[in-house]
Amino acid sequence: MVEKCDILIVGAGTAGTYLGWLLAKKELSVIIIEKDKREEVGKRLDVIHFESDRVEKAGIPPFQVGQPDCIEIRDTSIAVTPDFKTEIKIRSLQTIVRLTPFLNRIYNVLESDGAIIDFSCEFKKCIFEGNQLVGLIANKKGKSVEYRAKLIIDASGKNAVIRTSLPEDYGVETFKLGPNDVMYVLLQYIKWKNPQEPHPVPDTGYQWWLLWFGPSYEKEGAILGVGQPGSFDNARLAREDFLKRMKLPPYEITKKEQGSTPYRRPPYSLVGDNFLCIGDASVITYPFSGHGVTATWMLCMIALEVIEKALKNGKELSTDILWEINVKYFRDQGAKFASLFTQLSGVLNFDEKEWNYFLKKGLIYQTGEADDIPEPNKEYEEEMSAGEMLKFIFKILGGLIRRKLSFKHMRRLLQANGLAGKIKKHYENYPDNIKEFDIWVKRAKELWDQKKVAIKNLSTVQIEYY
Ligand SMILES: Cc1cc2nc3c(=O)[nH]c(=O)nc-3n(C[C@H](O)[C@H](O)[C@H](O)COP(=O)(O)OP(=O)(O)OC[C@H]3O[C@@H](n4cnc5c(N)ncnc54)[C@H](O)[C@@H]3O)c2cc1C
User: Fold this and answer.
1) Cα 51 to middle of ligand 1, angstroms
2) What is the position in ligand 1's atom list of the atom closest to the CA of 183?
3) pLDDT tens digits along 290-319
């Protein structure tokens, strides 16, 4: 049995579903294969946060609080200094979503727009003809099925089942994510036993430990989350250090979840002949939060434009036709994310006292005048006006003079920021001409090689951030 379509997507998570929907709306024939059963996709995570401004930009059918897939729409959160003395209010536009009900709502929309979703259908191997990817073999409820398509999209999540099985010379890196390429996340759904006792309110972050209390679906509940690279043990030990220091009122744990989210640079190219990767398979997450869902939707919007134009003009979806996706993505969001990811290695190097100073002085989360709540950094730019830069420098100098900041760590921050600027510029010059790609990659590798490992010492564990 051979199934044919324009676009074949592997994985009906948030990435594959969104791009599938965009393409189906353009009347292209779309099939998505998904290894899990319909009602079980996404079950590994329950409550998840989407950036509300990005949801709107992506044109997702609006969320309504109280519907099965939407708990709350929030606009602020709190950051607490490591000495627990200062709380900083931050504007943060988040839609709190339940993942499986959300996916099931979107599946209905997708199917009404003509897409087919084959659930319980697992990718097994690629089919190549004349060195070109033309289809794949999947196992659908125990039967082998062949699929053929003009474009095959890997949206299979972190394991990137297609990208990692492409030949080495296909033009897309085939690396797998190792322990230092991901943040291991532990979530405990908790319920306060004496809710009248003071406790962290949702959404409160303790950035020094990369730990937070997020909103939950339960009244008097919260989600205690922590994420660290290297191992689940690192995450657990960071939480242990926090709990030794922060005396929380009694609570019970009602549910636990765990998983990992990409924390490294994406492949230098996301496209090959008849091939595109998106979502965790393409290693696209917001560098400062590890969130991946809406980060990839921006790539999907670019992909739609390029794919639709090519198919309308009767073009084959070869690497050079799909190249425009790379150019548009990496010159914009890709460049900003690469820069922020590099800056992180400077910030994560600071010790606890320095974090206190940085947070209090608004050097990490810009604090506004008086009671102003700082605006979110919607476009992930880190540009400052001359006045803001001057204020920043004075605060840094003040910290150095009063020994709140060490020269060694400040030098590392400045080095990381300098490198981030160079990396950003390099990505903004992503080559239009595919023939210049090898030279561009050579320079990109030289730059990434200069990124230093940041080290954090907690009382329970030393953690390395690559
Ligand atoms: C604990 C935790 C909390 C997180 N919280 C947030 C958050 O609050 N906000 C946020 O934006 N991001 C969050 N993330 C990250 C987010 O979950 C991912 O970035 C996002 O789910 C990636 O979507 P995706 O569609 O690329 O991959 P996935 O969601 O992994 O979907 C891939 C799909 O492909 C299917 N698949 C895999 N292999 C095959 C195969 N061989 N054949 C067929 N189908 C296959 C899988 O079953 C799956 O349904 C969190 C991650 C973790 C681990």
Assistant:
1) 16
2) 53
3) 999 999 999 999 999 999 999 999 999 999
Arch. (CATH architecture) of 2-74+94-176+264-339: 3-Layer(bba) Sandwich (3.50)
**Cβ count near 130 (within 10 Å):** 6
Q: What is the pLDDT of residues 128-178, one digit of tens each?
A: 999 999 999 999 999 999 999 999 999 999 999 999 999 999 999 999 999
What are the phi and psi torsion angles at 378 (to 5°)? -60, -40
Distance 121 CA to ligand 1 centre (A): 17
- Cα 282 to Cα 24, 296, 315, 382: the distances in Å are 22, 9, 24, 24
Cβ of 280 below 6 Å from ligand 1: yes
Question: Whole-prediction pTM value?
Answer: 0.94
Q: Which CATH architecture has domain 180-262?
A: 2-Layer Sandwich (3.30)
Would you list the domain boundaries of the chain? 2-74+94-176+264-339, 180-262, 341-465
CA distance 328 to 350: 34
Name the residue of 55, 291, 296 whose CB sits within 8 Å of the most ligand 1 atoms, as the mutation to test its pocket: 291
Beta strands in 155-310 (DSSP E): 182-192, 204-206, 211-214, 221-229, 251-262, 271-272, 275-277
